[in-house]
């Protein structure tokens, strides 16, 4: 349950103006194994250059697994508050309204879980929790879900590499597939909005994701918005069958700014609850990040200095959600 004091509610209240609908590029991954692979790779690159955001169909994640994972998550969030708080923890575990450590608030409660290369949720994520009886089922389903989405994310990254003309084929995907990769699964629940005289609420404030790639799906409820290059916002039409993919900060660095991480937010405007599950594909903590030489060209200038993922991730905890974190890593 999200409980906000009057002042906190006012802090996250937004005007009721509705932005226009976004045109979101769609890429069919089912064509990738055959003659359509080159076209799919080009489409991915084009979407990453233009918007930093697209959706994929033909992704191969079983729909029955997605439905079961969403149902288990909804069941968890419907538990009494005391039982959910038994799974509390930072940075992994259950929390509500607080987003990060710098004062950002939202009309949200969530589970944050670590993900191993095999897709499993490490035992450490659950070991110290006194979980309700449904917890084991939630863990099992989210483990299977994470494994399937990680495989899909790695396939998308391989197509991106192909479309960019870089080698080897796993130049990008290996960062997420590595045995030491720092990947996360976040399950968000945005309860129905309270009555606020027509105003909307911030569910999750505007931000970019720091990792390499983010793969998101929701239960078909609206709320996700993306920011265009001119600073205007557009609402993403919900799609219960597709996955939405974000370019994240580390991928922007690796491509020397050719791909741009997309700024996005969630606005709570619905009387229906919204449940979303986001896989964040991150590199190992010790991984050094810098623009790939193959994308610099002859005499090309590197826009970013070299740094480790641990260094960059640590920097993300020092500012607010809307902070432009990459600017301090530019050359």
Automatic annotation (TrEMBL):
Keywords: Iron, Metal-binding, Oxidoreductase
Gene3D superfamilies found in the cross-reference section: B-lactam Antibiotic, Isopenicillin N Synthase, Chain (2.60.120.330)
MF (Gene Ontology): metal ion binding; oxidoreductase activity
UniProt keyword Transferase present: no
Highest taxon of source: Eukaryota
UniProt domain Fe2OG dioxygenase: residue ranges: 180-283
Cofactor: L-ascorbate; Fe cation
PANTHER family per the UniProt record, alphabetical: 2-OXOGLUTARATE (2OG) AND FE(II)-DEPENDENT OXYGENASE SUPERFAMILY PROTEIN-RELATED (PTHR47990)
Family: Belongs to the iron/ascorbate-dependent oxidoreductase family.
Protein name (Swiss-Prot/TrEMBL): Fe2OG dioxygenase domain-containing protein
Lineage: Eukaryota, Viridiplantae, Streptophyta, Embryophyta, Tracheophyta
């Amino acid at each position: 349950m999200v409980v906000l004091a009057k002042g906190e509610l006012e802090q996250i209240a937004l005007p009721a103006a509705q932005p226009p609908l976004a045109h979101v590029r769609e890429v069919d991954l089912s064509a990738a194994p055959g003659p359509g692979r080159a076209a799919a790779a080009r489409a991915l690159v084009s979407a990453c250059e233009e918007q930093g955001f697209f959706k994929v169909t033909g992704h191969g994640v079983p729909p029955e697994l997605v439905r079961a994972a969403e149902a288990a998550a909804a069941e968890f969030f419907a538990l009494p508050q005391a039982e959910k708080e038994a799974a509390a923890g930072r940075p992994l575990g259950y929390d509500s309204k607080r987003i990060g450590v710098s004062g950002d608030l939202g009309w949200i409660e969530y589970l944050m879980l670590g993900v191993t290369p095999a897709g499993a949720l490490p035992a450490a994520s659950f070991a110290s929790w006194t979980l309700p009886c449904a917890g084991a089922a939630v863990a099992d389903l989210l483990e299977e879900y994470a494994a399937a989405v990680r495989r899909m994310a790695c396939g998308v990254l391989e197509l991106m590499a192909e479309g960019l003309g870089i080698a080897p084929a796993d130049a990008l995907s290996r960062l997420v597939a590595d045995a030491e990769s720092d990947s996360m699964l976040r399950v968000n629940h945005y309860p129905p909005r309270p009555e606020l005289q027509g105003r909307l609420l911030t569910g999750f404030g505007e931000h970019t994701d720091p990792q390499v790639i983010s793969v998101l799906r929701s239960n078909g409820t609206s709320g996700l918005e993306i920011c265009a290059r001119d600073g205007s916002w557009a609402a993403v039409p919900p799609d219960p069958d597709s996955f939405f993919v974000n370019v994240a900060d580390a991928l922007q660095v690796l491509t020397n700014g050719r791909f741009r991480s997309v700024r996005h937010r969630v606005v709570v405007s619905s009387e229906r609850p919204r449940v979303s599950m986001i896989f964040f594909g991150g590199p190992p903590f010790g991984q050094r990040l810098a623009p790939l030489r193959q994308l610099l060209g002859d005499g090309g200038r590197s826009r970013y200095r070299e740094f480790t993922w641990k260094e960059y991730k640590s920097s993300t905890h020092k500012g607010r959600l809307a902070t432009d974190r990459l600017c301090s890593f530019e050359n």
